[in-house]
Amino acid sequence: MTTETVSRRYPTRSPLVGYLLRRLGTSVLLLIGVTIVTFLLTNLVPGDPVSAALGEGAAQNPATREAFIRAHGLDQPLVVQYFIYMGNLLRGDLGVSLVTGRPVTLDLATAVPATIEIAVCAIVVSLAVSVVLGTLAAYRRGLVTDQVVRVVTLVGLSVPTFWLALVSYYFFFLQLGVAPGSGRISPSITPPPRITGFYTVDYLLNGDGVGFFDAASHLALPVMVLSLVTIGLLTRFVRTSVLEVLDSDYVRAARAKGLPGTRIVLDYVLRGAALPILTVVGVAFGALLSGTVLVESVFAWPGLGTYAYNAAANLDLTGIMGVGLVVGVIYLVINLVVDLLYGVLDPRVRIA
């Protein structure tokens, strides 16, 4: 039996599939680690969760306090509490928030889409602008255009996010009146029937043009603030990555063949610089999803950052653990997607 016949009868597994399976296994182990770290750090937070849950008056009653402790398993060893937590987690039960009085799962189902909506818009705008500016600066290396782009990105990296959010809100809303107020929609607009949790998408799916434009206008300022900060980071990294590719042999060969400049940029330069850029985009997107507390506070955006702040301020341990778990899962998913794209773009990664 020839080798060709054996390979035809017993087809080998695709390297990309094997690469993906390895990354999925690693992600599962990391997820377990995230639950352990989140649980331990939350339980190490100083303060009395019983008093925070019952209030100072009820917590002073020994019978009430003892009943609460037994009901929530707080009298069990920490290891037993963790396994109770994991058992509830596997059933989709993250507990009840002490702030809202609702299941944490329902609170996060409302807060997470609100944050994802502005984060996705911000990363798309940032990536589109950064690729153009970074590539232009690399091609104009050392010239006036390059210097201007580098100064602008340095300013974007140096300006505090909360200050930029406050100035934008004051200038565009209070002074010029060209931007709407805070929140996801105007008070006179009815929220859309929930389909995806993203107001702009849900309005479009329901054919509500008025609601869509109102939700989009409320997105504009938060997205602009987050984009300006992210553009500074991505542009400088795109410039560095493109500069490295411009000095490669295959780009020189493409120029020697007389290929059009646009094709060289799209097919050779940007494709060669895609892998390191992809890594930074993943990190920036994760930071946008988990670090928008100040921006959401300024614009009264009911997202994950606002929910995390309220949970921490009120010692809501179930809410804190829920947010920590969601943030951990967000980073794991982003890293998994980036690794998968690495395997698709670069065949050498699949056999690493």
From TrEMBL:
One of its GO terms (molecular function) is dipeptide transmembrane transporter activity. Signal peptide: none annotated. It is found in: Cell membrane. The keyword Isomerase does not apply. One of its GO terms (cellular component) is plasma membrane. It is a multi-pass membrane protein. The chain crosses the membrane at residues 20-41, 116-139, 151-172, 215-234, 273-300, 320-345. Keywords: Cell membrane, Membrane, Transmembrane, Transmembrane helix, Transport. This is Peptide/nickel transport system permease protein. It comes from Microbacterium ginsengiterrae.
